[in-house]
Amino acid sequence: MKNQLNFLRFVLVLLTLPFFTISCADKQVDYEDTRVSLSDPTITTLSPESGAAGDVVTIIGTGFGTDRSKVKVRFSATEATVISVTDTEIEVEAPVGFTDRAISVRVFVASTATNTSDFYYIDTAAPSITSVTPTCFYNSMVVIAGAGFSLNVEDNIVKFGEVEGAVTEATKTSLTVVTPDLGTATQADITVTKLDMVSNAMHIDVDVDQNKVATYDWTTHTARPGVVYKTGQFTLFGSTTRRIHVLDVTLDASNTLGIGFSTTNAAAVTMCNDYNAIGGINAGYFPLGATADKDPYIRIDGKTVQEGHTSGVSVHFADAALLIRNNVASVRRLGTSGGSLNQVAAAIPVSEAENIIVCGPMLIDDGEIHIVNPDNPHNLSSTARTGLGVTGDGKRVFMVAVDTGNGVAGVTTEQLAKILQSLGTRNAMNFDGGGSTTMFVKDHGANGLVNLPSGGVQRAVRSVVYVK
Questions:
Q1: For residues 322 and 356, is the Cβ–Cβ distance under 8 A?
Q2: Does domain 42-121 correspond to CATH entry 2.60.40.10?
Q3: What DSSP character marks residue 408?
Q4: CA-CA distance, 248 to 231, in Å (whole number)?
Q5: Which of 59, 86, 164, 173 is most buried, taking the most CB atoms under 10 A from its CB?
Q6: Residue 35: which pLDDT band, with cuts at 50, 70 and 90?
């Protein structure tokens, strides 16, 4: 009986032994899988992170092992030469075939791939300059053309003489840089330095008058946040004294740009007050006395309020338009000839501009002063002028009025363009000037009139541009 019992126990052990063996084996496999997962190769950093082909790069990380035959390193799809391997560091030689760009580096240990890390290939060619914008002034944008520039903006150091400018855009063949304050200098030599390699020098002139406007210490009044009135009287464009008034407006929820219109004509100050404006200027031309017809096309809040004359209107009075869409402003050139430019403006869909007023001439087109028929007497006469310019994003507007008489002289359209460009406008246009030139700033001047109208008396006008 005892022998039978022992036999049964023996059989039971034999039957259960495979179960325990399998269970232990399963546990061992799970443990090994977990261990492999925890030690997958990983890149933490590269040293250095940039360089040229042939440089030795150390890949720092974990899980690389020590068997060099099982390790491969790829720069993008190009395999690099492995110099040495430890579990935490791999030394490789950066392969050829890349320049001035970031390349993804990845390690393969046997069949297991790491994460990627970028290595930036530096262009080892020295930079060279072939041309620069002809003139500059404080805060103006200068474009430098050439070769060998870095795509990394911060790798390009541009100097105007000994003063460094701020590079804003970079390609291999072009740099855009903001002109620094050059003081009273009338010229400078521009150089580009990349990784201690210095280019040739290229001469650039400083526009003394524009630099004077850009650096002038204006008398400034804040009408309200985002609406700043500035005025100054100083010699400009030679030894002549000019008096300039500027409304610097940032368009936002509190400051809305609008166009005002009166069929019976009224003083600009009266119209601005009627529209409850905080600031504004006179706007479009209108027939006066024996002058030729030159009514502009005007649209307000999506509705045409004046068709404008469609024939006989000089291009000087109608080649530009102020457009307002969702409180963003733009100045657009309508054409360079012909008397039907008002119809061109009328054809602009309301979806592009709820508000439009035509005038001219266009002064600045995409950053460049470009005035139709600049030698025309209308453009050459030195008189009181009214102008408006906008920044590239259309969210900042500069309204300008230049006085004449009482010891100060007016300006030509080119001089007005230079003033507006110096203030930072990308596109700008001329409005009705002479006796019509008026600037209104609420709670300043005489009932809001801050400039001195030509002849000392406000002329009744037909339209205004205002902010409220």
A1: yes
A2: yes
A3: B
A4: 11
A5: 59
A6: very low
| Domain ranges within the chain, ordered by starting residue | 42-121, 128-206, 210-467
Task: Assess whether pLDDT exceeds 60 at residue 30.
Answer: no
Q: Return the half-sphere exposure (C-beta side, CA atoms, 13 A cut-off) of residue 348.
A: 28
Hey, CA dihedral for 342, 329, 211, 218, is it positive or negative? positive
92 closest CA partner among 119, 110, 125: 119
Distance from C-alpha of 356 to C-alpha of 99, rounded to nearest angstrom: 50
- Per residue in 133-191, pLDDT (tens digit) is 999 999 999 999 999 998 889 989 999 999 999 999 999 899 999 999 999 999 999 99
**In angstroms, how far apart are the furthest CA atoms of the chain?**
142
Segment holding 189, helix H or strand E: strand 187-194
- The structure tokens 């430890």 sit at 86
Summarize pLDDT for 413-451 with one digit per residue, the tens: 999 999 999 999 999 999 999 999 999 999 999 999 999
CATH 3.40.630.30 fits 128-206, yes or no: no
Q: Residue 195: which pLDDT band, with cuts at 50, 70 and 90? A: confident
Residues present in the chain in total: 468
**In 308-432, beta strands by DSSP E:** 320-325, 328-333, 355-359, 362-365, 368-369, 385-390, 396-402, 427-431
- Token digits for 120? 């930036």
CB distance 190 to 241 below 8 Å: no
Give the tokens for residue 35: 């261990």
Cα(182)–Cα(413) distance, integer angstroms: 26
For the chain, the first-to-last Cα distance in angstroms comes to: 113
**Model pLDDT for residues 69-107, shown as the tens digit of each residue:** 999 999 999 999 999 999 999 999 999 888 778 999 999
Q: What does the alpha-carbon distance between residue 464 and residue 278 come to, in Å, rounded to a whole number?
A: 13
Q: Please determine whether the domains at 42-121 and 128-206 fall in the same fold group of CATH.
A: yes
Question: Among all chains, which residue has been given the structure tokens 């890349």?
Answer: 98
Alpha carbons 272 and 468: distance in angstroms, whole number: 9
Q: Strand order in 166-170's β-sheet?
A: 128-132, 141-147, 174-178, 166-170
Whether residue 16 is predicted with pLDDT greater than 70 in this model: the reply is no
In degrees, rounded to 5, the angle at the alpha carbon of residue 86 between the alpha carbons of residues 85 and 92 is: 30
Q: Rounded to whole angstroms, what are the CA distances from 147 to 144, 200, 386?
A: 10, 11, 42
